């Protein structure tokens, strides 16, 4: 642990201005991001007597080894920048709101040429309009099924849409008038886009306009004695009314508000929100947060509003006119200014005091309390077992701290061919799949490693060479400084602490607390030799042998035996099995690709791009064999000489000599004989 006095800024260095500050650990990882009206007074509060700080704050300042800050013009800018960096760096000491479940949304892909209505979960995408969230996916499908009668927007997947265009006939929904069938030209792209926009307007609460318009059209049709059309319009009006009535009226018409409820204790809190649009509850959502920093309810509410309304893909329509919260944020004026800027008009953040809104807030609070009880029931065992597992591993391997970050490596091959290796990452006992890595084992001559130990030595060497290089290059660089490069596998990376290709913090610059290899003493010795050669001394190492599930550490003649029922052994097994699964998957993919060959592979001047172009144009090698050189030359990217070389390679024995002579006259290097081209399956 570091003494905060060792990295405390000198007096007068910290400006007395609004800004955002970042604490970093000894590896350069951002562990905490905060904002302040006055950077000087806020940062000075962290460097008082450590014993007087809150326990969570004590842990943060003793884990950190440096502090940096950025001055901004206003407190509103600080609010936006703080959320942006929390999302970017994912600091371990900032509160993290986690959805208590994956809620489905009704999404309309307005950015597409022919927008599609569908159910979506997960991260929001730009150019897509979202409605919800809903408690159940079937609730969305029932609503969409009703509304497709009035707004026949496309709901099919890209594959179904493409197939319908190729066949020239719509799918079943097009025949029953629940799709306007833009795939076969029944409506233009602009007309279909307008249908999608009308659908969005209705879902956003503008139901009266469409009901009034349909009613007028129904009266006009009846006046013209077109009773069949009038009856259809009458049924459409009834459909819209049924879709509207599915949402209970809780507030006065025209009320747009998000109502938040917060329930918790010193360690955890649960949050619920009801989305009310046009006086009706359109959706409900919930989060659970672990209080890893010293925050009161007002701070939690401020962070919550940052997450709800600052996420990517949030449009102006997602911010209501009123935000009803249980406690006002400390900087409520700045929060209101920020939300008003997102919406484009005034937004009011307040605590409901009386009437229907206060009653609804009480209902939301009850839902939050119930969600917290349910979360504790579901997660207590899991949280306890993970903590126990990390503690058991720490004690068994005599580690100075619990291994919060574990990396596991495994090698997979088929009798020495297509050698692949995997690196999986577990943080706090949970898999971090975004940080998994794959390695293609090459060996000293590029033909693969001699055995598993040599492969393990190569993989560990390459991984920690990257660690040393990135640590040296990153240093104290700020966002995105430095030049880009490529690793030995051709994987692009940025030399600064932020990967410019993904916009996320680079993780290879951070060492694990524990390296686990799949295997016994030979594999452990190979990994230990690689770490020793690189001068890595602050990373623990062990191996897990499959046969007896023994834990081997470098230099010990006897393994460490963990009880079969222990949580520590169970965690190591899960890490090892995940590394094995990931390596097997990569190996099979390489093997399948390597064992698939094509007669086009050895034709001079015909690379993968041209092969794909030929196959797309002709559809198969059989049709390509029947094509003339002139027909092949019409394919984009193909020239006359290459076309003659293709004809020569695919020609039968009778025509091979003539094709070769023609190719030679044109200057192409045709193969001497059709038998020189490799036979085999065509690559997909």
Which key phrases capture this entry?
Nucleotidyltransferase, domain 5, GIY-YIG endonuclease, 23 strands, alpha+beta, 5 domains, 684 residues, seven-stranded mixed β-sheet, six-stranded mixed β-sheet, disordered C terminus, 20 helices
What oligomeric assembly is this protein in? single chain
Q: What is the name of the CATH class of the largest domain? A: Alpha Beta
Tell me, rounded to a whole number, the average pLDDT.
77
Rg, rounded, reads: 32 Å
How many DSSP-defined strands?
Answer: 23
Structural class: alpha+beta
What is the name of the CATH architecture of the largest domain? 2-Layer Sandwich
Q: How many distinct helices? A: 20
* Main sheet overview: 7 strands, mixed
Looking at the structure, what is the overall shape?
flat
- Strand fraction equals 15-25%
CATH topology annotation of the largest domain: Nucleotidyltransferase, domain 5
End-to-end separation: 55 Å
Domains counted in the coordinates: how many? 5
Family: Belongs to the UvrC family.
Function: The UvrABC repair system catalyzes the recognition and processing of DNA lesions. UvrC both incises the 5' and 3' sides of the lesion. The N-terminal half is responsible for the 3' incision and the C-terminal half is responsible for the 5' incision.
Organism: Cellulomonas gilvus (strain ATCC 13127 / NRRL B-14078) (Cellvibrio gilvus)
Protein name: UvrABC system protein C
